[in-house]
Amino acid sequence: MSAASTSVARVGITRQPKIVLFGPGQRRQLPHLVRDIARHLLVITDERMATTPEFQEVVAAVEQAGVRTSVFAEARPDLPREDILAVVERFGDVGVDAVLGIGGGSCMDLAKVVSVVLTNGGDVRDYYGEFLVPGPGLPVFTVPTTAGTGAEVTCVSVVYDAERGMKVGVADPHLEAHAAVIDPELTLTCPPGLTAATAADAMTHLVETFTDRVKERTPEDLASKLYVGKNPLTDTFCRSGLALLSTSLEAVVAQPGDLEARSATMLAAYNAGMAINTAGTAAAHAIQSPIGALTHTAHGFGVGALLPYVMRFNLPTRTPEFAEIGRILGVADGTGSELDAAKAGIERVEQLLDTVGCPLDLKSLGLTPDQFDFVASQAMLATRLTDNNPRELTHAAVVSILEHGYANDRSWWTE
């Protein structure tokens, strides 16, 4: 552990589901969990997942346990606000008393935010921000089918508000799931592109939270702010997740049907979700949001493509942490300088992203130089994320990151 990590981390906090089940086949435990607290379960998924035998098996098993089910199978990527309105209108008066989100991050985010809107009323816009949900929602069960978002254990739902032209977070402990059931068997049929995008997301979560800003937090802060910054508890999850990804990503690419590798990657994504839930993500996520809105590219690819340049920008303020990443990823043995170890860690992260097929430059995403100023302005509005970055972000700094990323300039910055 680096000196920087031990000397500055004073406050640690975790928020997590009441129950977390992890392991192949654990989806079969769902009926036993649901029947104890629900009589009418609303199941939220997407169109593709709804046609799979695994989904139909889950729904049938819950019904056999004596629980009525209603299904919304129209969840879309990036969680449009309209999906929330549709679910509330359709199921607001049918007496559901629990919600299951099964699928990718948007499916689970939709389940979480719908649970509090159904219970507390109003429009989801009333809850944009931190700690603005007035009370608990319906019990939520989350079942991820990808390894990357960590949404199964986070108390955040990210909503795309088309009228505002941006993604907005609903961040509140009341969104925390009652139970998360993490079954790696559900990722075996995940397409290569989706595997790559979610893996890049998980890697970015781990790197950003491990190198986050450390914040002094008062009791009042802890009662009103979701993110407390880098701390001893989130560091533990980051170290575990990075160690798992150091070998499992390459194994998943080589053998997509390797259940052991899929399990390790999914466990890493869980660790990443636990880390971001209280430390929070930073520059890469803040900058990706407007890029994604402009280019309609996958979130995971966007943050992955930004990460090489964000890491280089942050290196001067987080050299010990990047050096430790180098040691965790097996490319630094402590014999060289700390800076050399840090650079090796950054390059190994890039190598792993490249291995899974993540683009490593912004031009590949379709971003153009005339959009840099807009992206920087929008990114700076995401203060919940920019405040986590270890090196101060300015409009000019974001533009510089974009310029390096567009040019695929991975030289070491001197400024």
UniProtKB/TrEMBL annotation:
Q: PROSITE patterns from the entry?
A: ADH_IRON_1
Provide this UniProt record's keywords sorted from A to Z.
NAD, Oxidoreductase
The protein's superkingdom reads: Bacteria
* Keyword Oxidoreductase found: yes
The signal sequence is: none
Task: Kindly give the CDD domains that the UniProt entry links to this protein.
Answer: Fe-ADH-like
Residue ranges occupied by any Fe-containing alcohol dehydrogenase-like C-terminal domain in the UniProt entry: 195-404
Q: Where is the Alcohol dehydrogenase iron-type/glycerol dehydrogenase GldA domain?
A: 17-184
Under the heading PANTHER family, the entry gives: ALCOHOL DEHYDROGENASE (PTHR11496), ALCOHOL DEHYDROGENASE 4 (PTHR11496:SF102)
Identify its protein family.
Belongs to the iron-containing alcohol dehydrogenase family.
Protein name as catalogued: Iron-containing alcohol dehydrogenase
Lineage, broadest ranks? Bacteria, Bacillati, Actinomycetota, Actinomycetes, Propionibacteriales
